[in-house]
């Protein structure tokens, strides 16, 4: 399919430190890919290279090629801001903008990029909040501060904010790790729905979650502290969990380490 | 755990090192792990004594620190309030009023102080905030380190040195007159480091997650700074600006050197002497022995305090109105 996201031979650095080495992966549209692996193995780092957020960190640098629909995301003429508009992101900790209301938070990406038309903004807010399964909970208090919502609602607010700008790809960096099981369930249901429109990549420490929500699973590991993280194995989720090729994958998914 | 079990573990076989480690561990556990019920009552007598002493020392320090504050405020209010009750104080200047005459007005000095503070702030606040934005959001490497170092040095410059520097440039080098604007320039030197440092601290307090959240929406960096970072830090920045303003409004050395006193209303920053509250205080201070002048001096001091207080209240109100919503 044309709108594939392809990662080929990617090395990622923090200054002189090589954090991730030799990653090659393909993501299909309308599918969910889960990144699993022990802490510090570079899952989040790889995720952040997919929308050029890695280079925001001083010294952050990427080698290799990452292409979306055949276009190199790291080509000289590519604007990182445009990349991030196409590849949205939801973070581990919900981060609604504290000075803004719920409504302002949802349309922040549109408004800060110059959309002024009130009815268009209102439409986009309702569509995104419905998309994030939050509309019924907040429709009567859109002018209340976004920071006043519960943690799970805040995270769904952040998802609504991310899908309001209509990206092609949605990256999620441990979106449920700060949430209770009910909120986690809500987010997982949401991922299932969003899948029909978006390509989703999710980092998770929760193996059951990876098994539940993803079509494809990538297992990352690192040989030792200080060594770069590597992609050990990637494949359809059932195969990774039931018939892993590598011994370390087997050990990890069966809970024997990590 | 009893001491005997620790001793038993010491008998463990293995290399001498392993035995040593086992013994240490056992001794440690015997020390830390106990079957005694936890003690939930208040601590020992010495613990309570320490608590009492610390409490007394803290309250005494607080009381001691309050003494000069209350004393100064009390004296200034007691000696100065009467003149402030007269409407002429707020409507007239000191024109045609001799040192021996009672009362008169302070409006010329109030105007001068407010005008100079406003112009100083208008120059320092943007410069200071932009510098802080550079240091926090863009600053990397040598330039940022150099700027940061310079700000440190500037914040240590005594006001008299700032005043003499401007005097050397303005009067000695260029041959200009001593006017209100020259005062403002020296006050700018004193206010910029305060604004830079406080704004810098406030910007650093803005969580990185907010910046990243904005970038991830495809918002350019400069819009992220102007629409997300600055509003989040707004109340802190306002507080910093107010602190800086309070400092320069009470500053006297630059005024004595660059802004001589005059008794009449003078609102032109670029022509002639400009009276201010500190120089008015200084003027009456020189009339030693005249009760009228002394009373005026206290009243002027109280006026200055009230103006700084009012500005702080306005700042707090503004900060509360448009800051982080809860």
TrEMBL record, chain A:
Pfam families referenced in this protein's UniProt entry, alphabetically: ABC_tran
Gene Ontology biological process: phosphate ion transmembrane transport
GO molecular function list: ATP binding; ATP hydrolysis activity; phosphate transmembrane transporter activity
InterPro entries documented for this protein: AAA+_ATPase (IPR003593), ABC_transporter-like_ATP-bd (IPR003439), ABC_transporter-like_CS (IPR017871), P-loop_NTPase (IPR027417), PstB-like (IPR005670)
Start and end residues of each ABC transporter domain: 5-247
Record key words, sorted: ATP-binding, Nucleotide-binding, Translocase, Transport
Cellular component, GO, one term: membrane
SUPFAM superfamilies hit by this protein: P-loop containing nucleoside triphosphate hydrolases (SSF52540)
Gene3D superfamilies named in the record: P-loop containing nucleotide triphosphate hydrolases (3.40.50.300)
PANTHER family given in the database record: ABC TRANSPORTER I FAMILY MEMBER 17
Protein name: Phosphate ABC transporter ATP-binding protein
TrEMBL record, chain B:
PROSITE patterns (alphabetical): ABC_TM1
GO biological process: phosphate ion transmembrane transport
SUPFAM superfamilies in the cross-refs: MetI-like (SSF161098)
Signal peptide coordinates: none
Keyword annotations from UniProtKB, A to Z: Cell membrane, Membrane, Phosphate transport, Transmembrane, Transmembrane helix, Transport
Record field: transmembrane: 56-81, 114-135, 147-170, 176-196, 228-249, 297-319
Domain ABC transmembrane type-1: 110-315
Superkingdom of this protein's organism: Bacteria
Membrane topology: Multi-pass membrane protein
InterPro entries (UniProt xref): MetI-like, MetI-like_sf, Phosphate_PstA, Phosphate_transprt_permease
GO molecular function: phosphate transmembrane transporter activity
Pfam families: BPD_transp_1
GO cellular component annotations of the record: plasma membrane
Localization, UniProt: Cell membrane
Gene3D superfamilies: MetI-like
Keyword Nucleotide-binding tagged: no
Stated role: Part of the binding-protein-dependent transport system for phosphate; probably responsible for the translocation of the substrate across the membrane.
Family (UniProt): Belongs to the binding-protein-dependent transport system permease family. CysTW subfamily.
Protein's name in the database: Phosphate transport system permease protein PstA
Organism annotation: Candidatus Phosphoribacter hodrii
Gene that encodes the chain: pstA
């Amino acid at each position: 399919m044309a709108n594939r996201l392809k990662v080929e031979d990617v090395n990622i650095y923090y200054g002189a430190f090589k954090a991730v080495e030799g990653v090659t992966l393909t993501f299909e549209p309308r599918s969910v890919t889960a990144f699993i692996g022990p802490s510090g193995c570079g899952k989040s780092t790889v995720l952040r290279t997919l929308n050029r957020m890695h280079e925001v960190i001083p010294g952050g640098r990427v080698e290799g090629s990452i292409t979306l629909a055949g276009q190199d995301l790291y080509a000289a003429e590519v604007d990182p801001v445009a990349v991030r508009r196409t590849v949205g992101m939801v973070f581990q900790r919900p981060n609604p903008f504290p000075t803004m209301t719920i409504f302002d938070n949802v349309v922040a990406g549109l408004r800060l990029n110059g959309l002024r038309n009130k009815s268009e903004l209102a439409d986009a807010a309702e569509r995104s909040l419905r998309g994030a399964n939050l509309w019924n909970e907040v429709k009567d208090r859109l002018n209340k501060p976004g920071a006043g919502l519960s943690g799970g609602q805040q995270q769904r607010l952040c998802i609504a904010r991310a899908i309001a700008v209509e990206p092609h790809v949605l990256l999620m960096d441990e979106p449920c790790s700060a949430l209770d099981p009910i909120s986690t369930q809500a987010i997982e249901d949401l991922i299932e729905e969003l899948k029909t429109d978006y390509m989703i990549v999710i980092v998770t420490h929760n193996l059951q979650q990876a098994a539940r929500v993803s079509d494809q699973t990538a297992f990352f590991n690192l040989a030792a502290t200080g060594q770069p993280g590597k992609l050990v194995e990637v494949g359809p989720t059932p195969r990774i969990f039931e018939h892993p090729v590598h011994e370390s994958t087997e050990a990890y998914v069966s809970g024997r380490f990590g | 755990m009893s001491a005997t079990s620790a001793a038993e573990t010491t008998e463990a076989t293995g290399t001498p090192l392993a035995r040593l480690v086992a013994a240490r561990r056992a001794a440690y556990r015997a020390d830390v792990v106990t079957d005694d019920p936890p003690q939930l009552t208040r601590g020992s007598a010495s613990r309570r004594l320490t608590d009492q002493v610390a409490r007394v020392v803290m309250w005494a320090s607080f009381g001691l620190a309050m003494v000069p504050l209350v004393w100064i405020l009390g004296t200034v209010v007691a000696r100065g309030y009467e003149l402030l009750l007269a409407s002429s104080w707020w409507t007239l200047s000191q024109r045609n009023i001799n040192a021996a005459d009672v009362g008169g007005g302070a409006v010329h000095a109030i105007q001068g102080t407010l005008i100079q503070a406003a112009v100083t702030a208008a120059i320092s606040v943007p410069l200071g905030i932009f510098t802080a934005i550079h240091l926090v959001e863009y600053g990397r490497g040598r330039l940022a380190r150099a700027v940061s170092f310079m700000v440190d040095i500037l914040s240590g410059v005594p006001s008299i040195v700032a005043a003499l520097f401007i005097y050397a440039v303005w009067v000695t080098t260029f041959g200009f007159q001593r006017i209100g604007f020259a005062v403002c320039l020296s006050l700018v030197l004193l206010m910029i480091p305060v604004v830079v440092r406080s704004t810098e601290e406030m910007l650093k307090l803005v969580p990185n997650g907010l910046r990243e959240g904005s970038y991830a929406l495809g918002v350019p960096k400069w819009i992220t700074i102007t629409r997300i970072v600055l509003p989040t830090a707004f109340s802190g920045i306002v507080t910093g600006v107010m602190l800086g303003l309070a400092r320069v409004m009470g500053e006297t050395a630059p005024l004595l050197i660059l802004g001589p006193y005059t008794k009449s209303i003078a609102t032109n920053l670029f022509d002639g002497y400009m009276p201010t509250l500190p120089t008015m205080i200084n003027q009456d201070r020189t009339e030693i022995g005249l009760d009228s002048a002394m009373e005026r001096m206290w009243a002027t001091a109280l006026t200055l305090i009230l103006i700084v207080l009012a500005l702080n209240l306005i700042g707090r109100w503004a900060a509360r109105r448009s800051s982080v919503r809860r």
